[in-house]
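Researcher: We're teaching a course module on how sequence relates to structure. For the next exercise, students receive a sequence and then see the predicted structure as tokens, so they can try to spot secondary structure elements on their own. Here is the exercise chain.
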Amino acid sequence: MAAPERVADCYKAGDVFVSASRSETQGLTYLEAMASGLPLLCREDDCLKGVLSPGENGFSYTTEAGFSAAVRALQSAALRRRLGTAAQALALLAAVLGSMLLRADRMPADVAVADRPFQGVNLTPVPLKPSDSAAEGASTGGTGEGEGNGQEPQEQPEQKPQETPETPKKEESDGGDKDKEKDDAPADGDKKDDEKPRMQVVTDLTNKTIAFEELENGKFSFYAYLESPEEVAYLQVRLGNTRCSGSNGRFTVTLAQGENIFTLLVYQNGTVVRSYTKTIVYRAAMADEDNKTVGDDPPVIETNLPDDADYDTSNANFVLTVHAYNSQGTIYHNHIRVMLDGKEITQYTGSETLEYRLYLTAGAVGDVSKHTVEIWAWDDRGNSAYKKHVINYHFKEEGEVIGSVTLRLDATVLGLGILAEDSGYEVKQGQPASYVVKEFLEDNGFPASYSGSLDVGFYLQRIRCSDAFSGAAIPEELQTLLTLDGLTVRQPEGYKDSLGEFDYTQGSGWMCAVNGYYPGRGLSNVFLGDGDVVTIAFTLAYGKDIGGADAANVRGNLRTYCGTWLGDRYIPHHDFVEGKCSICGKAEEAHEHQWTEEVTREATCTDSGEKTLTCGECGETKTESIPALGHDYRSGGVVWEQEGESCTAEFTCTRCGSSGTIHASRADGTLMENGRVEATCGQDGYVSYLAVGSIGGTQVRCEGTVTLPATGEHTYNEDGVCSVCGRKKDEETTE
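Model: And here is the predicted structure for the students to work with:
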């Protein structure tokens, strides 16, 4: 049992206060934990009403499953801080209320209720709204420009701003304007209303919804200050769980899409005595099917589905991968929305690249069902993007063959290259990838040992093959990075006949990628589809050296490695900043880049493409856009409505097959004479016309001709011979 003076230390040593009691007789422990800034996790009970607000200062549970879900959510440090801050504020308010009510109870009976302390004062707990996704602890508030460490400040009172044209004078706040929040409650209950000074909060914060266009340079500004004669009283403003810093009572913050909850806390003698909340709902214009991007810096959304065609699959457990980013960096799950057939998918795994399992259904064997996948990604600066895919699911029974896959065994990081590769392995509906991997390894003479089973918890531990791993050599550049990462490289003695976890380094082992992506799940929970390529690759650094590290769970000193594999050659890929690599510290050496291009997205008539350029000398990569090709319309000729005066022409694009029609006439200037050959006595002439118009914004033109019949009238010279055709005049007479 801890000594009384050590109780507070015991609370502060914990992350969460957990209680499973059904009949708690030590009710003070809840408030003690809250006062220490701990979120609560308690069995649901009537005695906790008014103390525990699920999602605001902790969680309650009634079942083991509910308890487990709450524990998983509370693994997020950000969520614990938010809930703990709200819990502490409520505990402090409860302490103040209890003290003042005790004083009120001891007053003489003849003292009017209106003269008692805190009459009319808002003591409602701060209603911090729970996050939409507790798994990551995302705050409903945006980002305040200030500290946000969850600690109550010990600062001087915030001063009233100077009276400027932008800051209303005191008397302006007395007019009942709904856009100003004032607290007219007495600051001292021992004085009469007409004698005692007032303590009041003046602000232009109101509950409202605003659009991106209403912000100033993407920021939201407001004023808030405390008018108080008490030197020990001051105002603190929070957005979500982050303290806002301002100057002279004015604040500028970045809003998050959706609800942004502002809390105004009045401190007196270091204790919260009053609190107010205002909610600003921020609705930035969102991209949609008609406007696929919004803003100057719209996110790029990358998925494992084709952009320009429907995707056909018989895999009922299809996993969609989504990676979104813009110039500001990766966009995470709380700014990404995925819908399948109009229903939001909320279950995901991963961090920078997210995985969403899509359970596809159809009526019966042989049926094909069409499914629509919609994805939105956005940031807090008014930028957003939209992408739509269509999946055609061909229904097959459990255990039925749904296609074949290719597998390869890769030990390139040891200089051994591809040890085995084979295609044509059948995959079955509902069968985990672990079955196919085991079959492939055994067929190629690489039997494996693993933990778990093929159906549950499969983990590939070691692969064996006599003398298959001798001659291993770690590239020098990679070895340097391993050392910088804090990994100890051991000599390869004893590793020639088998290769597995902890060989060479403490971060080594086998990892499996599907179509170049490393799933955030074990192979017993991965389901393959027709045409998939599975790579079983050896890593020396928790996957960072083969592109398989999860940014949210990176071990070692380095977040990533500055190197890539080009074929069987390791190429350093440094992140040079001011002539020095920010990862490994290597000095930049001047050289002329030798770029090779790879088209990663073909350009179409209407959409731009993308290509990746890689330097063969240093491994540096860059991405460039390929301009949209534009339509190549060709005409099959004109059809005259009135010869020489008006016509119609139909055009077809040689690239995409789209078509359109134009009408041209001399009257409106869209049909113009383009050339003329006059008819002669015995020869037809013609007039060439040029028709111009526009199809979907693309300018088009084509030519048409009108025949001028021969005149039959000869022009004879003095010798009686036609100067045009050479006919003699006497021949005409003879005729």
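Model: If you want an answer key for the exercise: The longest helix spans residues 77-105. Residues 633-708 form one domain.
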